[in-house]
Design a protein that fits this description.
about 425 residues; alpha+beta; four-stranded antiparallel β-sheet; three-stranded antiparallel β-sheet; about 15% strand
């Protein structure tokens, strides 16, 4: 038999549990006449139980325990199954839950691994391989938010990458359209963030630089002036790669050559200021050019010498002009000949000619003379008008007049002349 309280196996007919001390109840016999025997045993058990309790209270538990009648628990096995079945069910459910939990944890670990591998591939620029990893993980976790977001972003990234890759083999006729495509992609990438879009932005920058360098490399040999080459040089300065630097040096060398030849020709034509401006324009765009620096120094010396000579020439010209002006104002008229005679009618005739020694045309020329007697005494004066009225520089004119001679007019003397410069 077993204890009805703690379940420890007891000796047959034990009244108390040797383990926990609980009183044991009578087990009913399941034989056909068990109803009659049960009643008798129940009555006997009750009286024995009362006596046993009295003995326990009097301190005789140990001696009385051996004399107690056997107490049997009814339906002991049924009660065990009452709590054993739920415990077993709970264990099965727990085992199943644990198994499911471990399975889900394994799936999560696999999904996380695929996610990490996909992101690593994307960072390495392998967009399609990364997309395959994300799709494989989505097959297990279709609602995974990070995977869904990554897949969506990667789809856009692949589309932009395809546009950039399509510009790889652009020809010269397509440069402008290719640059337009790349710049549209760059504008779209500005609104996006993340490693893959940063990589695409760097790729777009590189593609743009490659196309620009190709375009400039093919076009600059055809340019023949600094004005045509300078925009190409400014375009390349926006890029810092070694290749762009090489093309810039070629353009700078050509600009120096053109400027050198042009400035030398301008200096030979005495256009020193224009020649120096040509050199300075290129030196402002080219970091260092000993060739242009030497030419500039030579032109400055020639300019200084020319200016000094020119200053001397101007000074001489001014002095000459002053002398000419003085002569024009004071000695423009030169009397070449002067003849006097008294005709048969008694008139004293005065005739002569003059020359314009001025460097300009003159007009309104008047020659003033004094009429003298034989002893040189002034007896009269006369104004002689020269004809023609306008006389070119170096030209000649004549003048004449007559007066009635009372017998004392013998000769004339030119006193002065006047004229107007034209």
């Amino acid at each position: 038999m077993f204890c009805s309280q703690c379940g420890v196996e007891l000796l047959p007919d034990s009244k108390f549990c040797n383990h926990c001390g609980a009183a044991q109840t009578l087990q009913l016999d399941k034989s056909p006449d068990s109803s009659v025997q049960g009643a008798v045993k129940s009555s006997s058990a009750d009286s024995d139980l009362s006596a046993s309790i009295a003995e326990i209270q009097s301190g005789k538990l140990e001696s009385a325990a051996a004399d107690l009648p056997v107490l049997l628990t009814p339906h002991k096995r049924g009660r065990i199954w009452h709590w054993l079945l739920p415990v077993c069910s709970l264990c099965l459910v727990a085992a199943a839950g644990y198994g499911l939990y471990m399975h889900q944890m394994k799936l999560n670990k696999q999904v996380d691994q695929f996610l990490a591998e996909g992101e690593s591939l994307v960072r390495d620029g392998k967009l399609m391989e990364g997309k395959d990893k994300f799709e494989a993980a989505l097959a297990w976790r279709p609602e995974h938010p990070v995977l869904l977001n990554n897949k969506e972003l990667l789809r856009d990234a692949i589309a932009l990458d395809d546009l950039l890759q399509a510009t790889e083999n652009a020809e010269s006729d397509d440069f402008d359209q290719t640059l337009k495509t790349i710049r549209n992609v760059k504008r779209d990438l500005k609104a996006r963030t993340g490693v893959v879009f940063d990589q695409l932005s760097a790729l777009a920058d590189q593609k743009e630089e490659d196309i620009v360098i190709k375009k400039v490399s093919e076009s600059y040999p055809e340019k023949t002036s600094v004005r045509e080459l300078s925009p190409l040089l400014r375009t390349l300065r926006a890029y810092k790669s070694e290749k762009s630097g090489q093309v810039m040096k070629l353009i700078e060398q050509k600009m120096v050559e053109i400027a050198h030849n042009q400035a030398a020709d301008e200096a030979d034509e005495k256009q020193f200021g224009l020649a120096l401006a040509t050199i300075d324009e290129v030196l402002g765009m080219v970091p260092i050019s000993s060739q242009l620096e030497e030419l500039r120094s030579d032109i400055e010396q020639r300019k200084t010498s020319f200016e000094q000579a020119e200053q001397q020439r101007i000074q001489q010209a001014l002095e000459t002009a002053a002398k000419e002006d003085e002569k024009n104002r004071t000695a423009a008229v030169e009397v070449l000949e002067l003849e006097v005679y008294t005709d048969e009618y008694g008139y004293f005739n005065i005739e002569g000619s003059m020359r314009n020694n001025a460097t300009r045309m003159i007009s309104g020329v008047i020659v003033y003379v004094d009429i003298l007697d034989s002893e040189g005494t002034i007896i009269d004066s006369e104004e002689l008008y020269v004809h023609p009225d306008y006389i070119e520089a170096g030209g000649e004119g004549r003048f004449s007049s007559y007066l009635y001679n009372y017998g004392n007019m013998a000769k004339v003397r030119v006193t002065s002349s006047e004229w107007q410069l034209i």
